[in-house]
What does this fold into?
Amino acid sequence: MSAPRPVVIAGAGITGLFTAAELVRAGVPVVVLERSAPGERTAAGVALNTAAVAVLERRGLFAELREGALALPQVHFSLLWLDPDRAGGPSRYPYLLAQSRVEERIEAELAAADGVEVRRGHQVTGLTQDDERVVVEVEGPDGPYRLEASYLVGADGPHSTVRQLAGIAFEGAAAESSGLVADIRVDFADVPPEVFGARWFERGLFMGAPVGPDRLRLITTEFGTPPAAPAGPVTGEELAKAAVRIADLDLGALEPLWSARFDDAARQADRYRAGRVLLAGDAAHVHYPLGGLALSTALEDALNLGWKLAATVRGRAPEGLLDSYEAERRPAGRAALRATRAQTALLHPAEKVGPLREILRELVAFDGPNQFLVDLAGGVGLRYELPLPEGAGEPHPLLGRLVPDVELVTPEGPVSPAGRLRGGRGLLVRFAQGPEVGGWTDRVDVLTAEPHPELDAAALLIRPDGHIAAVTDDPGTLRHALTTWFGEAV
It folds into this structure.
């Protein structure tokens, strides 16, 4: 039998790398193509919201990253400060951590794995596909070549070449404001305190955050200033002038170690799949980067796609499994755009939004509005509409939601369900006299636990992405869910 064709992923940012890690964990060969040269990392993100931390914890990646992360004392919605301590449920404080550190952690895991290759300086230039394969045309340092792939994942950012080659539309609102981001080397003893933190001004936003022992990240946004075209490199002088215009901050002479431009365009692909080509992350949706929502949405795309695509490539996927990626993640992407556009609408122009911001500031003193906006900013509360067997009645409130972060009492000691998902397999939790269902143990782990008040059922089926696929004491309903998400029993 010939070796399976690899999955080719365009883009070695956080979406592409995390998708690759999911596939490799399931034994699927992967080739990652990244157009930037080796050593170049230009990820601008610095915030990990609740949802992003939860994704990383589900794969055992955050414990090491936590050591270099800074827990932020507050959560904000459009720079209106909220109180997670008054919020119930899964709400937690966000962390300040450079996205590049997360990418480095994932790539270190890939470097220790078999069956994956990351090629930097390689650009996708064309593709053709049929019912069995995708032929990817690539321009590499040594010239053009072709790759045969089982599937092609476009994780190559807002200006995705893969999306354009696949003929997928990318529509939405054009940019109305523009921003700059850069890292500069500093002695933090010399940095004035007003540089740190994120602040709203009438002309824009200014943020300064440490991202290393001697590295400061500066981020500016100027309202009502569309991005310049053509966009050249960001100079230190340009960044310094923006700080003066927005925040009246004189930062002196600046020499960026790296820099990038961004804007507040809000667009979404009209579909996430075209045959054997799939989109994820910024290639599928793009919006203003505020509060880490873009990062968490991209990570959840990768997590949702990874296990489904792996099962498909290995020939173990039930009918329609890969189609459920778009069915679940496109509405989630639309919700992220809605939450971000609501925040940008509260930023500018100051004379119009100022009174509204004052009223909202008074509203969040109440627990209900505070809870709602903490969850919205944290990217939590997502619920997928999952299928039920005919005659099953109303869905359980937990169905489709992320498994709660609880501790279960088991014969092997205290166990967190999320902690048992690190291998990328499903998990069946049986409480008390829960139903015995065999035939899926090659794909689904089984855990017996004492009943828990937050998990009111005899059995709980959890997908590899952490979302609950069944909450039931009926063996027939459980078998339906197992078959729907993991295929036929063996």
Q: What stands out?
A: The CA atoms of residues 27 and 115 lie 8 Å apart. The longest helix spans residues 323-345. The radius of gyration is 23 Å.
